[in-house]
Amino acid sequence: MIDLDYLAFLENILTDNRKERFLHVLENRTKHFTVAVEDVYQMHNTSAVMRSCEVFGIQELNVIEQRFGKRIDKEIALGAQKWVDINRFDSVSGCLSDLKSKGYQIIATTPHEQDCMLEDFDISKPSALFFGTEKEGLSKEIMDNADGFLKIPMVGFTESLNISVSAAIIIQDLTNRLRRSDIKWQLSDEEILVKRLDWAKNSIKDIKRIEARYYQENPR
């Protein structure tokens, strides 16, 4: 349950422009689609995918670090880690189980399956979009558990794209179509309040000291 008094206290510290910007961005945020990346060795690729999620309004990124434990490359992410929720998993099975429990269908992005071209993808169902490395692609475990496959149409000799490029193309296309649809894709009122609080805290320097002072003066 959100402490609305605490939220109001923090937002009173922010400028009006900042608060209005939060509300505008949150109007375009969605959890209807979520993105998952599997064991991406190059740190900058995961960071670039996160940046694409932020730019195109995907609120959650799921990172599977079964083989390669990596921190987010802040230089590439360019602050996106402050605005996108990162869910970390140390196994493929844990990630799949979590996303299925939330009602997502598992969609494997791959150039080697003919199930569905990007422009034909049904956007009505909540979907978790899985991306793997350019060299190895997605693991057999994900492919075996996928509810569907998604492919970017390509007409050149090259058979695959870098993961960050593929993610940007797919996320931009699907979120653009989503916003033009009648699907209820927006965050709930409660989810918006949670993000307003998180983003306010991420925007205020020395937040721990300010938070401690607030609760000292306003004991629960």
From TrEMBL:
User: What Gene3D superfamilies does its record include?
Assistant: 3.40.1280.10
Keywords in alphabetical order: Methyltransferase, RNA-binding, S-adenosyl-L-methionine, Transferase, tRNA processing, tRNA-binding
Residues binding S-adenosyl-L-methionine are: 109, 152, 161
Could you say which EC number(s) this protein's record lists? 2.1.1.34
> Where does the tRNA/rRNA methyltransferase SpoU type domain lie?
33-171
Catalytic activity reads:
guanosine(18) in tRNA + S-adenosyl-L-methionine = 2'-O-methylguanosine(18) in tRNA + S-adenosyl-L-homocysteine + H(+)
- Which molecular function GO terms apply here? methyltransferase activity
Please provide the Gene Ontology terms (biological process) for this protein: methylation
> Which top class of enzyme applies to this chain?
transferase
> Which CDD domains does this chain map to?
SpoU-like_TrmH (cd18092)
Task: Please state the span of the N-terminal signal peptide per the UniProt entry.
Answer: none
Q: Provide the transmembrane region boundaries.
A: none
In terms of Pfam families, this protein maps to: SpoU_methylase (PF00588)
The UniProt family comment states: Belongs to the class IV-like SAM-binding methyltransferase superfamily. RNA methyltransferase TrmH family.
Q: Outline what the protein does.
A: Catalyzes the 2'-O methylation of guanosine at position 18 in tRNA.
Matching HAMAP family? tRNA_methyltr_TrmH (MF_02060)
**Protein name per its UniProtKB record:** tRNA (guanosine(18)-2'-O)-methyltransferase
Print the organism lineage.
Answer: Bacteria, Pseudomonadati, Bacteroidota, Flavobacteriia, Flavobacteriales
